[in-house]
């Protein structure tokens, strides 16, 4: 302090400046603290929102009733809730078992371009053998996006991807695939980040995939004839109702074939039931080779098969039936190098046009099948090894 002319004490300028500086510093620290608190609050709210969205996502995939629903949810919802620029799913499918069954269950893989399949574990990109996975499960791989190195995981990669996370999908120390995440943000996935969250996500996805695939396998078994590998009657009964409704909506014709192996009892009596089984398998194979992917072949029981042809009028169906008849009759069936059999089939064909589809679908299906059955009987009566597509229809 300094003394003025009046004898009063005046504040020292240096001390005042020091007080002001201290106040300014305290104010700045308070502002910084408030900004930090606001940032932390914003992050906490954002994290809570993300967690809430992911909890809803978990519930959605856990409740998925079939393979397309599960895969569709993963590939369409996850990029949105996680704010990602690319998400793909790679499944390990040795021997193409999953793809075979899903095709049998009418899964349209073209609907899921980001669903990928590999047949060898090394193709997943984790550089581990099956034995190594069992002893030391791999961790997620986080890092910068490399167009060449990550091409298999992101074959349709959008431009500008900067960082990726390849998340192993593990069940009981067994690798079943990988969940592949990518972002245009270079800081989104870096090797220094923790992986607990994406590992949790991967474990939920893996559990759901295994459960749904197992259920679909059981469904496939329940809809498939164990001897020939084609559909069974249970499947075709269900499919008939679906296709009748679809044909009415989309206004196209559908056709039905009833096929019977001629003199099959004589085959069993000659070569035994084991030989008869081989004949049925070969006949089923020859029929299937003449059909399109959209058509459905089923064993109705015994030596009877049926075929459902989509968007096929009567003349087209009769043409296909004649090809089937010729294929079966055209070459001997070899049971052993020394034993070959000549086998023929009789076929009845009936068509259903959009104008005919009125009333109860179940009743329509019964009448339609009965019409094809009557024509099959006519083919038998006319001498067998022939196709009948006109005449008696109930």
Reported CATH architecture of the largest domain: 2-Layer Sandwich
**How many DSSP E strands?**
14
CATH superfamily of the largest domain: GAF domain
Name the assembly state.
single chain
List the secondary-structure elements in sequence, H or E: EEHHEHEHEEEHHEHEEHEEEHE
Strand content: 15-25%
Q: Report the total helices.
A: 9
Largest sheet: 5 strands, mixed
Average pLDDT over all residues? 88
Uncertain ranges: none
Through-space gap between termini: 122 Å
Shape: elongated
Structural class: alpha+beta
Main sheet: strand order:
4-3-7-6-5
Give the fraction of residues assigned to helices. Answer: 40-55%
According to CATH, the fold-level topology of the largest domain is Beta-Lactamase
Round the Cα radius of gyration to an integer and report it: 34 Å
Structural notes for this entry:
There is one protein chain. This protein folds into 2 domains: 64-221, Beta-Lactamase; 233-388, Reverse transcriptase/Diguanylate cyclase domain (Alpha-Beta Plaits, 2-Layer Sandwich), CATH 3.30.70.270. It is elongated, with a radius of gyration of 34 Å. The model has no long low-confidence stretch (mean pLDDT 88). It is α+β, with helices and mostly antiparallel strands and 394 residues long. The strands form 4 sheets. Strands 4-3-7-6-5 form a 5-stranded mixed β-sheet. The protein has 9 helices and 14 strands.
């Amino acid at each position: 302090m300094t003394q003025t002319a009046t004898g009063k004490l005046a504040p020292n300028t240096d001390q005042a400046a020091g007080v002001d500086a201290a106040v300014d510093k305290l104010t700045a620290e308070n502002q910084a603290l408030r900004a930090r608190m606001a940032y932390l609050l914003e992050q906490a709210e954002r994290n809570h929102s993300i967690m809430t969205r992911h909890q809803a996502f978990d519930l959605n995939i856990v409740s998925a009733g079939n393979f397309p629903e599960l895969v569709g949810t993963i590939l369409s919802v996850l990029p949105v809730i996680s704010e990602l620029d690319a998400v793909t799913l790679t499944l390990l499918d040795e021997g193409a078992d999953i793809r075979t069954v899903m095709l049998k269950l009418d899964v349209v893989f073209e609907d899921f371009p980001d669903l990928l399949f590999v047949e060898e574990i090394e193709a997943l990109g984790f550089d581990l053998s099956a034995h190594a996975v069992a002893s030391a499960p791999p961790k997620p791989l986080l890092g910068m996006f490399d167009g060449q190195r990550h091409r298999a995981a992101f074959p349709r990669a959008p431009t500008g991807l900067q960082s990726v996370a390849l998340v192993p999908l593990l069940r009981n120390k067994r690798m079943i695939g990988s969940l592949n995440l990518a972002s245009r943000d270079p800081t989104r996935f870096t090797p220094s980040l923790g992986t607990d969250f994406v590992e949790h996500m991967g474990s939920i996805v893996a559990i759901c995939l295994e459960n749904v695939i197992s259920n679909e396998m059981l469904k496939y078994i329940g809809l498939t004839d164990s001897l020939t590998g084609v559909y069974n009657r249970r499947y075709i009964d269900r499919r008939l109702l679906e296709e009748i409704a679809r044909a009415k909506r989309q206004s196209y014709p559908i056709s039905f074939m009833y096929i019977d192996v001629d003199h099959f009892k004589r085959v069993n009596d000659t070569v035994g039931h084991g030989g008869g089984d081989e004949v049925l398998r070969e006949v089923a194979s020859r029929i299937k080779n003449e059909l399109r992917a959209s058509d459905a072949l089923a064993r109705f029981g015994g030596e009877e098969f049926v075929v459902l042809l989509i968007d096929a009028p009567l003349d087209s169906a009769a043409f296909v039936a004649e090809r089937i008849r010729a294929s079966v009759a055209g070459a001997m069936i070899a049971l052993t190098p020394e034993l070959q059999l000549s086998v023929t089939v009789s076929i009845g064909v009936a068509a259903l046009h959009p104008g005919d589809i009125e009333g109860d679908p179940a009743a329509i299906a019964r009448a339609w099948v009965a019409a094809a059955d009557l024509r099959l009987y006519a083919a038998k009566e006319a001498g067998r090894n022939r196709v009948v597509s006109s005449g008696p229809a109930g």
